[in-house]
Amino acid sequence: MTLPKAARLLRRREFLQIQQRGRRVYSGEVLVIALDSGRTRPRIGITVSSKVANAVGRNRVKRWVREAFRAAQAEFPPVDVVVVARRGALLLGLEGVQRALRSAAAVLAEGRA
Question: What's the Cα-to-Cα distance from 53 to each of 33, 48, 63, 72, 94, rounded to whole Å?
Fold first, then answer.
């Protein structure tokens, strides 16, 4: 199951703008960068560097992040989010990524990022 286009960041320009001006929330091996979007629902973009793992590992981490975002989407305020997986992200597993995103969502919802 894929996220609908309305829930995804699609353009490089959007990723760069969020990474330059967004609020950073460090949550273990996952960095969440958020920027107010003025939309009614959150959108997500995922970045996994080749330093994290080979192609199979990177795709696995991206699937975990998408699934964790689907589960925690209601907890996020209406912001654009870029999730950057760091080196140890492959060791987290789905449950670890879910904990990291829920923690970041709580911080963003409180507005203390």
Answer: 21, 9, 14, 25, 16
**pTM of the predicted model as reported, rounded to 2 decimal places:** 0.90
- List the domain range (segments joined by +) for residue 51: 5-110
Any idea what the Cα angle at residue 24 is, between residues 76 and 51, rounded to 5°? 105
Specify the number of domains making up the chain: 1
Per-residue pLDDT of the chain (113 residues; tens, 9 = 90+): 678 888 999 999 999 999 999 999 998 899 999 999 888 899 999 999 999 999 999 999 999 999 999 999 999 999 999 999 999 899 999 999 999 999 999 999 887 54
Identify the helix (H) or strand (E) that includes residue 83: strand 79-85
The CATH number of residue 101's host domain is 3.30.230.10
Tokens of residue 81, six digits: 């989010």
